[in-house]
Design goal:
single chain, mainly beta, Porin, eight-stranded antiparallel beta barrel, 1 helix, 13% helix, globular, signal
């Protein structure tokens, strides 16, 4: 009888575990980053410059997130989504055009959503690091 009661209790607990609500994710949903973001970035040996990026795709196989950098860089290109680690979303940046010889190459852009219309930007690639705050338009 004790065995039957224990078996019934174990079955009930297993059923409760299966029907319990799943834990809520702790990271921001990708949709929270969608939109056009602007900011002023800093980078060693360069004057501060502006960035405008439109995040509209989290598809790893297409590069449909255009980006533009203002003076003194004056470059443009696109970002292709790579992955997410917590609240940090990473994109592969490829520069495709611009007004100077510095407009070339690729690197990794990390966007960290800070809530609402705020995020931070970090680029690394080619021995360069750029950082700064972003605000959604």
């Amino acid at each position: 009888m004790v065995r039957a009661a224990l078996a019934t209790a174990a079955t009930t607990l297993a059923a409760l575990a299966l029907t319990a609500a799943p834990a809520q994710p702790t990271s921001v949903p990708a949709e929270s980053l969608e939109g056009t973001w602007t900011g002023t970035l800093t980078q060693k040996m360069t004057q501060p410059f502006t960035v405008t990026a439109t995040i509209r795709s989290f598809n790893r196989f297409t590069a449909t997130n255009p980006v533009r950098y203002g003076a003194p860089l004056r470059c443009r290109g696109h970002w292709r989504y790579l992955d997410r680690k917590g609240d940090v979303y990473r994109f592969r940046e490829t520069i495709t055009a611009g007004d100077s010889d510095t407009c070339k190459g690729s690197g990794t852009v990390s966007i960290t959503w800070k809530g609402g219309d705020r995020a931070t930007y970090r680029f690394t690639g080619g021995g360069v690091t750029s950082t700064g705050p972003l605000k959604r338009k």
